[in-house]
Amino acid sequence: MLAHVSLPQKFPSGHGWTTCKRVRWTLAAGLFFVLAAWTGSARSQEAKPPPAEAKKARKPGDPLGRTREELGVSDRRKYSQYEIETMDLMLEEAGGTIDRNPEGKRIESVEVVTLDFIEKRDPVPVWFNVFHSTTRPHIIERELLLEKGDRWSWDLVDETERNLRALSQLSIVLILPLEGETEDSVRLLAVTKDIISFRLNSNITVIDGKLAFLFLQPSEENVFGRHKNVSTLFRYEPDTVAVGLGYTDRRLWGSRIGWNVNGNVIVNRGTGRTEGSFGSLRYAKPLYSTRSKWAWGTAVAWLDEVSRRFSGITQVGYRPSVDGPTPLPAPPRGERPAWVERASPSDLVPFEWRTNIVAWTTSVARSYGSKNKTNIEWGVEANRRSFTVDHLDDYDPVALEAFREDQVPRSTLRIGPFTELTAFSTDFLRTVDTERLGLQEDLRLGHVVSMKVYTSAKAAMGTRDLLGIYNGLSYTFPMGSSGLLRLYGSNRIELAGSIDESDAQAEAGLRLITPTLLFGRFIYDGGVLHRYRDFLNTRTSIGGDGRLRGYKASSPFRGKDVAASNLEFRTSGVQIFSFQAGLAAFWDAAHAADGFGNLDLRHGLGFGFRGFFPQLDRIVGRLDFAFPLSEFTPQESNGFSVVLSFGQAFGLPQVAPNVPVLSQ
Question: Are 558 and 592 in contact (CB under 8 A)?
Fold first, then answer.
């Protein structure tokens, strides 16, 4: 990805503790539920109609898209019932009739309708829109890859819809061809519905009745209806609080150049002193279309903090044992808990080190092809990773050295050029009710090939002479009209001057999405990650609200090697007013350990609810109830967990050189 830098994140989804109750919702959600209970459903439509002179009378008996088959727009296009209702209303307003064969016809007019996040058909009073800045029509029009005078192309229409759906400010995106004044002309009608712009993005973790984590990010994501974002941040943890500001403008002065910046400070709750900071700056022109030829960008990010590991709100410690490293609760300062009767407190080393990471990249990219794309990117990048334990001198030297060797990541500095090649198909499967509910989704089909070569040298201030090579490949097969099978594999190796300084890992897996069976579909995702050379001392944790529900994220399931298997049955969405609801049942099996032969899968079983308000977010909300099936200790599970969060438990796997799938 152009001008991409990746740093460890603790917010919001990167939080890795036991999640007994986890909440991420918008500021409007609570009020929305209350108001919906007493308002009822007014089914009439309030929209900004196209100009009156552009309207054309609807033909008598036109089906207005009562079913997907009757729409006749394209065999490739799938619509949910909610989207069909929206098309019905917009066709009534526009006074037009769908052109069933628009391909190649001249576009005589472009009409844009931007809907407020609350309409009269929604079960909430429309005055609620005072909390929202509605997208201005010209903001949508500038994203269209077709304009007046062009010839209608379904490929460009589909790509435009995908680009618009990628914007966080929009939920519904529909582009329809309406019959023009002549048989050789067509009207382009673009309809979008906003998501509430003023939001309180949040993430809460409560463990045993105590607040363990709180993330708040009040933001205005559509300033003056122009898709600009201003945000503040507050993050509470057992040891620190962090506060900061951010700004994003993806179309600077209306151009294709975008930039974002954020900066945050970290304050220790115990001492009240500043303990670190984190932030990023990015300035880039992306490949915004399959017709784009050139792109460029530069980005920098930093993270300076004291990294600690907790179980709940208690910091954990490390003590070497006969069976290897064992994480144990660290004794409070000045106290000697009963479980440390046979060992000196100095034998326990707190899980704590100073992390200082700075990443920078500058690159330019050239894109080739149309149906099958090949993008080549060249650039220079620098990555400084420093992990130090320099404040624990009063602990046992043997235990401290073992802690450094087994648990603390390796410090490195890498500076040098890189070349990255990405080849992919532009075929997509359009479906509904897979990762989301009630909205169209585009899932990439065919091949994705990702290759990256990068170098670093001691002569250029690097800590190692190395040649890094990443290879990733995935292929996605369609299954019926609404399912797919994706196979993927990747390998990354850093060849250094010494074999002891080399680092390497391999990963493989698959995703299966069955076609709709009666009232739902099965989703299976499984994979393995093996770090067969681990100079960087990288670890992955399993447990919490994702790959292994029913077990604590602070459990000892942590290691350089990972295996995961997740099976879910997700029902199709049911529309209640504009709310989309669904059910899910799941079986999770996963484990992480040091050494591929030490993996011992733990199993969890559960069920959950899925919900989606098109007024609040494109992401599905989920409430999961999970039960561990394997034998467990109190450190591994409470025996039952409840997860309330946004987003599916495991995302659609993508091969990329930055982060392994099972670590995403």
Answer: yes
